[in-house]
Amino acid sequence: MALLQIQEPISSPSKQDEADIVIGIDLGTTNSLVGYFENQQLKLFTDENGKDLISSKVAFDKDGNFLQAGNSEVGDIIITSIKRLMGKNFNDLNKINFKNNFIKDLIIDNSQNNQAIALKIGKKTISAIEISAEILKYLKSLAEKNLNQKITKAVITVPAYFDETAKVATKLSAQIAGLEVLRLVNEPTAGALAYGLDNLTKGTFLVYDLGGGTFDCSILKMQNGVFKVLGVAGDNELGGDDIDKILQDNGFKTAKEIKEELSFKEQSHGLSRSKFNDLINHLIEKTIKISCHLLDDLELNPMEIDGVILVGGSTRIPLIHQKLSAIFGDNKILTNLDPDRVVAIGACYQAHNLSKTNNNLLLDVNPLSLGVEMMGGIVDKIIYRNSTIPIAKTKEFTTYADNQTAIKFHVVQGEREFAKDCRSLAEFEINNIPPLPAGFARVKITFALDADGLLTISSEEKYTGQKQEIIVKPSFGLPENQIKDLLLESLKNAKFDIENRLLSQAIVDAKHDIKIIQNDLKNPNIILNEDEKNKIIGDLKKLENLCNETRLGSKSHDSENTISLNRQEISSAHQQLSKTCEPLILQKINKVLKQNIAGKKIDEV
Amino acid sequence: MTNYFKIFDLPEQFEINLNLLEQKYHDFLQEYHPDKNFAQNDFEKLQFSMVINEGYKVLNQDLTRAIHLLQLKNIDLDNDENNPIKPDYSTLSIILELQEKVAKVNQLEMAKILKKQLEEKINNQILKFATSFKDGNYVIASQAIIFAKYLKKTWQDLKNKERNL
Fold it and tell me: How many CB atoms neighbour CB A404 within 10 A?
């Protein structure tokens, strides 16, 4: 627009878009947190009651209509610990340790379709992925309310020991909630990040992370802003929930309260701490064993660990301190950050790291080996566990029969020797192999893990050079049409958001020009005749009024079309004004030209 | 074949400065890691960060660095079919003997002693590799590494066993 190019050096209203804010989310089994880090300040967002610890509960009415997520107790059917079902299918049920049978009984048998676990809630069938999405939507809305701005990007933490299907499921939930996941960060890594940035720590640290539903152990080396995860280990089916269950099974109804009270008292509800320790000893011993094996895997001894970081509310249990102190020494246990919030803090830091330039860098690893099933059901590992990601590995495969033109691959994840004992990730086939004697064809398969630890596979046939990109569909996803519907809904929101942004831009642009013209009209050096001047003032007022009257669309009242029409109205009034301003613009151009050539010889111009 | 020594600009030899390797690795990551190239979503940089992650891992450990040096001399120890150099008879008989010992281990103390012995043997073979590789004697160098690989496998078996004691 001509007006903008010759504007006077006056302070122009800011045209900068609102900066993209990336929030950090700790999506926990029992509780979730959401926050944001900016200007060296961390902010965890609170709900209407001022609580930042948001219960990971989702409430439905008796018909299965979604009511709300979060701390409220309202609702007929309340779903808890949905995270334990992420990435699982019906056939995994026996592996899941349910705290009570209520959720278990809601699960429907959809095993034939190889789909994500779904619950029968009232009249509706709702997948775990969608339920988790409701929690994310709620967390997102808390951030939006607090920051008074639309949020579309997040860093979300996941247990380090989450397998591929669970990670993909989490990403899908975020997508449904209208959040682009910039990075999935492993929870213990996030915990370490929180300590690392707070204390400018240097050295090798062990993170002991006992969450509601999962146990993770992670060892990191921190130096010069580089956080390198050396290795992770864990148990996906062991968490604080299991301690509650033990108490309930032993007749103690108020498990949560007892557990909390025994962290600082010797006695609670008729249960002594020593009896409590006896009851849970085998669980804690299991976590200690996993931690020691990880040390051993990494060829480290406990003396080489500079500090032990505790993550998760359950780590307040004195028995855990006792056992860790016995191995690493009492002074090594770090407790200065709140174990309930440390993962969220780390998530916020990482969100900040990804959106701003700095020297901090997080190097994470893949928790489980990836391989393919060979003849006889044995797994040939391609990418070993605890490899720094991103990573790519290529392996050559050949045919085992003459004139074989296709090879079938079964991709699995896990440490066991036989494919049937590992997690099945995907199956795919390489076709069009030239017919050759057995063992002559050469197919190169490349496995690549990105920085989220998510897998893509590509193949190349050596003789024909034929390449193939294989999209690994998670074995237990949602049916295509369902994903489409859910995405369509988010897309509808996205379109609405775009329209709103365009409208806001049009208003900012118009106001910008109005200000310039108003100044020009006051400028004694610009001389316009009355007619020209009145026309300009008329069009200016019209545009100004439009700008002031037009409100950004709200989802409940306006359609995208209305927003779009409002924008078009402003744009055409803006164009009209530019046109009536032509005599003014001409004068300005002349003035600028005159200034530039004043006092200069003609051949200098 | 990717030459990781070239990528990290280090001399193509067994003895390398591991601190320098780490420094170069971190410098590379600051430029190529996907977190540092978020907005661009640069595929080539992503691929290169995969190469340096793998390269750092290979060069950072004695055994994998030795195997890589031999690969660069066209001796592929990771792929038995392509490799004309086979372990000699005495290597195999020593390994068999050691594996029998591992099978008999039933005490933690015993496991610890045997583990130490195996570690010593692995180090000796790597030393043997280093001198013969320097002298250009690649057959002996390869045989030392083949031996070391067998020893490492035995060591791993022992470790797994130790955990269940």
Answer: 17
Helix axes A318-328, A273-297, angle to 10 degrees: 40
What does the pLDDT look like over A551-592, one tens digit per residue? 777 766 777 788 888 888 998 998 899 888 888 888 877 776
How much is the pTM?
0.76
Q: What element of type H or E holds B129?
A: helix B108-134
- Whether the CB of A448 is below 8 Å from some CB of chain B: the reply is yes
Residues of chain B contacting A392 with CB distance shorter than 8 Å: 47, 50-51, 54
Contacts (Cβ under 8 Å, ≥6 apart) of B110: none
Closest Cβ opposite residue A390 in set B26, B49, B163: B49
Residue A293 has its nearest CB partner, among B34, B46, B163, at: B163
Considering only alpha carbons, which residue of chain B is nearest residue A448? B50
Residue numbers in chain A where pLDDT is lower than 50: 1-18, 475, 602, 604-605
Identify the pLDDT of residue B20.
96
- What is the least distance, in Å, from the CA of B75 to any CA of chain A? 17
Position A598 scores a pLDDT of 60
Q: Is the Cβ–Cβ distance between A286 and A235 less than 8 Å? A: yes
Per-residue pLDDT at A16: 34
B53–A293 C-beta distance less than 8 A: no
Q: Considering only CA atoms, which of A485, A514, A494, A495 is closest in space to residue A576?
A: A514
pLDDT at res. A400? 83
Give me the pLDDT at residue A367, please.
Answer: 86
Angstrom distance (rounded) from CA B65 to CA A326: 37
**A186 φ/ψ sector (left φ>0, alpha ψ -120 to 50, else beta):** beta
Report the candidate in A141, A159, A134 with the shortest Cα–Cα distance to residue A29. Answer: A159
Q: Which residues of A touch B38 (CB under 8 A)?
A: 182, 354-355
Q: What angle do CA A249, A158, A307 make, to 5 degrees?
A: 85
Q: Pick the residue from chain A with its C-alpha nearest to B38.
A: A354
Residues of chain B with pLDDT under 50: none
Q: Flag whether residue B33 sits within 8 Å of chain A, measured between CB atoms.
A: yes
Residues in A touching B47 (Cβ below 8 Å): 392
